[in-house]
Amino acid sequence: MEFLTRSEAETEDLGRRLAERLGPGAVVAYRGGLGMGKTALTRGLARGLGCGERVTSPTFTIVNEYEGGRLPLFHFDMYRLEGPEDLFDIGWDDYLARGGVCAVEWSERVEEALPPETVWVALRRCPEHENWRAVAVEGVDLT
Question: How many CA atoms lie within 13 A of 128 on its CB side?
């Protein structure tokens, strides 16, 4: 299913709607280049899960943890990882076992290690409008 978001706020709102459909242990894997709205979507996930903390990109920390909502949110940036084998060095299995939602930026770097029930989200810029995004969601129904 594909959605068109016309602003960062609309991308965040789509993330909020997605969060309402996610349960414990859900993995949301993002595909999309720099500046496509992955962190904005994650801010919406956090809002939808009830996490009130400020959401930032985990580029240098690999993972940011947000607690206090109906489920914890673990926001990963896999850009600096060499491959799926590096997941185990960062405690990936422990995060999955904690029953939160794992949001994974640069998921293509670790794709073969993600669970089969992963929700896939592809974000791309609309050529006609710089700030608009086409967001394809697979693995969960948002209607």
Answer: 4
Amino acid at 5: T
Contact status, residue 116 vs residue 29, Cβ threshold 8 Å: no
Residue percentage of the chain with pLDDT more than 70: 99
Q: What is d(CA 64, CA 68) in angstroms, rounded to the nearest whole number?
A: 14
Provide the 10 A C-beta neighbour count for residue 142. 12
Cα separation, 90 vs 96, whole angstroms = 12
Token pair recorded at residue 97: 């076992």
Q: For domain 25-128, give the fold.
A: Rossmann fold (3.40.50)
Only one residue has tokens 């293509």, namely 108
Q: Which two tokens stand for residue 111?
A: 């794709």
Describe the crossing of helices 8-19 and 38-49 by its angle, rounded to 10 degrees: 40
Tell me which amino acid residue 4 is. Answer: L
Domain boundaries, the chain: 25-128
pTM over 0.70: yes
Question: In terms of residues, how long is the chain?
Answer: 143
pLDDT single digits (tens) 87-129: 888 888 899 999 999 999 989 888 888 999 999 999 998 888 8
